[in-house]
Amino acid sequence: MTSPARRLRPGEPCAFVAFGAMGDLTRRKLLPALYNLQANQLLPRELAFIGVARRALDDAGFRAYAEAAARAGAARPAGAPPAADFTTCVHYVQGDFEDPATYARLSDALAHAAKEHGTSGNALFYLATPPGEFSAIVRGLAGAGLTRQDAGWRRVVVEKPFGRDLDSARALNRELTQALDEGQVFRIDHYLGKETVQNLMVFRFANGMFEPIWNRRYVDHVQITVAEELGVEGRGGYYEQAGLVRDIVQNHMLQLLALVAMEPPSTLAPEAVRNEKVKVLEAIRPMEPEQVLRDCVRGQYGAGIVGGARVPGYREEPGVSPESRTETFAALRLQVENWRWAGVPFYLRSGKRLARRDTQISIQFRRPPLLLFEEAGVEQIDPNRLDILIQPEEAICISMKAKRPGPGIVLEQVKLDFSYAQFGPLPPATGYERLLHDVMIGDAELFHRADLVEASWRIVTPVLDVWASLPARDFPNYEAGAWGPAASAELLARDGRRWAGPG
Ligand SMILES: NC(=O)C1=CN([C@@H]2O[C@H](COP(=O)(O)OP(=O)(O)OC[C@H]3O[C@@H](n4cnc5c(N)ncnc54)[C@H](OP(=O)(O)O)[C@@H]3O)[C@@H](O)[C@H]2O)C=CC1
Ligand SMILES: O=C1O[C@H](COP(=O)(O)O)[C@@H](O)[C@H](O)[C@H]1O
């Protein structure tokens, strides 16, 4: 485990190479995150930022672009140096990822960075590109000898979705390991960089009171919701290829599930934590087709009202087919078939253009075994619930019953609350700061191992296969601004339950 002192020191000298430098991720997340890191003295002084993209630009043009992006997306504490300070280390390499000449130019830029910025030959290659480009870039880097570590470390950060299904994820893993050691590969999932997600491990394993009840004897079921108000935001071309399950469920949501359901690791060593995550995901058996039809719901939004404004339906978004069959909503009922969780359903739901942004986990406990308050007229007692609110509100709440003051017994639902606001305002962050710093110090704990990615695909690939074989006659089947199709509520109603959070 990386020492706390190491975490507070700047990352190691390096060239940060962003493939896809003019894309949405680099602009909205990576540049602002680096800028935030710099404001917190966590960037190495010996840093070069090299953008690689197709557009014709020179260093000065890209510098202006990077400065504007960093400024727009980051919030600087008072007294932090201005953005231009950060961008003095910015350079640009123009080229197509499929063209070997791009890597020859990049090689020159790296040599220049080592000389001008003292990067010690270290390089972090960030693949902020459409997933279809990952293999070509790794081949290009290896072909130009840029993955060799004889003159400094070379690390490759691979974005999600990692593959399209189990077979393509395996093929990509094989390609990566032909060119790189596993220790050079950082498969990123930005949800693991969020404060509240990191807190899940602390909450479970630093508080002895929850562990004894964290199992099928006491837990009735678990719900995970990742609701977005946003639509596809100009990423229609990407989204048509991905869909909600590849974009959110296979990665972010199964990570949340793994953190809730995994066994305590024997240590916090990255491998020990990753082993437990893989084990719990492997305990979710792939679904048979009839199970997919019964336990999985898909949806696509039509036009509607979100945040008071009328928004177009998914099929009207730029880059989307007017007959698109791509899902923008999914709800799944999963079973973790192990000793701890047998018989406890895990309900997952996520969607674009829902009524509001809301990511939360609800652990619903069993009802008390005896209705002691029947005589006082209380016929049914709501079960206790533990809600872990991840965004936008960051809090942990326990819902329980208390007696309302006064004569007689009147039970009232009350909340025991912990809000992150108690720590004071959280530093503004994109979620990428911690993860980028981790790569610069070589800490892989919050990154996925090959088997973890494959275990996640093993769960969702049968769902995608069945859906691909079905006609999508009923799309769109929910209005933008609603909480998904009616079948989502029915999935729980069938089991005598309902969504605990929003909707
Ligand atoms: N955007 C987001 O919020 C998030 C994105 N991600 C992941 O990050 C990755 C990038 O996403 P995003 O930034 O949205 O994608 P974009 O489509 O916005 O950006 C991709 C960039 O790659 C460039 N590019 C594509 N093909 C080539 C090529 N052959 N040669 C040179 N340049 C090329 C594009 O250049 P050009 O402009 O010339 O087409 C574009 O600048 C994806 O894997 C996505 O899943 C993950 C989490 C969040
Ligand atoms: O990975 C992705 O995540 C974002 C949602 O991230 P959040 O941190 O705002 O919750 C999602 O909008 C995007 O489609 C997806 O690619």
From TrEMBL:
Residue ranges of domain Glucose-6-phosphate dehydrogenase C-terminal in the record: 201-499
The UniProt keywords, alphabetically, are: Carbohydrate metabolism, Glucose metabolism, NADP, Oxidoreductase
Q: Where does this protein act, in terms of pathway?
A: Carbohydrate degradation; pentose phosphate pathway; D-ribulose 5-phosphate from D-glucose 6-phosphate (oxidative stage): step 1/3
- Which InterPro entries does the record associate with it? G6P_DH, G6P_DH_AS, G6P_DH_C, G6P_DH_NAD-bd, NAD(P)-bd_dom_sf
Q: What is its EC number?
A: 1.1.1.49
Q: Where does substrate bind?
A: H190, K194, E228, D247, K352
Q: Which reaction does it catalyse?
A: D-glucose 6-phosphate + NADP(+) = 6-phospho-D-glucono-1,5-lactone + NADPH + H(+)
Domain Glucose-6-phosphate dehydrogenase NAD-binding spans what residues?
Answer: 17-199
Which residues constitute the catalytic centre? H252
Residues annotated to bind NADP(+) = R54, D96, F97, K160
Q: What does this protein do?
A: Catalyzes the oxidation of glucose 6-phosphate to 6-phosphogluconolactone.
Give the family per the record. Answer: Belongs to the glucose-6-phosphate dehydrogenase family.
Name-wise, this protein is Glucose-6-phosphate 1-dehydrogenase
Which organism is the protein's source?
Answer: Anaeromyxobacter paludicola
